[in-house]
Design brief:
It is a single chain. The protein is mainly alpha-helical. It has one domain. About 75% of the residues lie in helices and about 0% in strands. It has three helices and no strands. Helix 1 crosses helix 2 and helix 1 packs antiparallel against helix 3.
């Protein structure tokens, strides 16, 4: 494997890790926002204030999505570490 193809492979892996982490975070945040929106813990008939929704949203994130957030953070760190370093001229 030449140095150039190795560098291209590292760039591709880093970009895939970063895009995957972004997708996982985005899907989890959208799901959490939608699940807690206009409900009081699953009761579709009870409207809520914005403050109640934010409180439920943060509570939902803390209880259920912290593994996905930590996994995404690990993927972001791995993507940054895999990305090839610039060489000074």
């Amino acid at each position: 494997m030449t140095a150039r193809s190795r560098q291209n492979t590292r760039i591709a892996v880093a970009v895939l890790l970063l895009l995957g982490a972004t997708a996982i975070l985005g899907i989890n945040l959208l799901f959490a926002w939608g699940w807690t929106d206009t409900t009081t813990w699953g009761s579709w008939s009870k409207p809520q204030t914005h403050e109640q929704h934010l409180q439920q949203f943060y509570s939902y994130l803390w209880r259920f999505t912290w593994p996905a957030i930590l996994g995404s953070l690990a993927m972001i760190i791995a993507g940054v570490l895999v990305f090839p370093k610039r060489k000074s001229p």
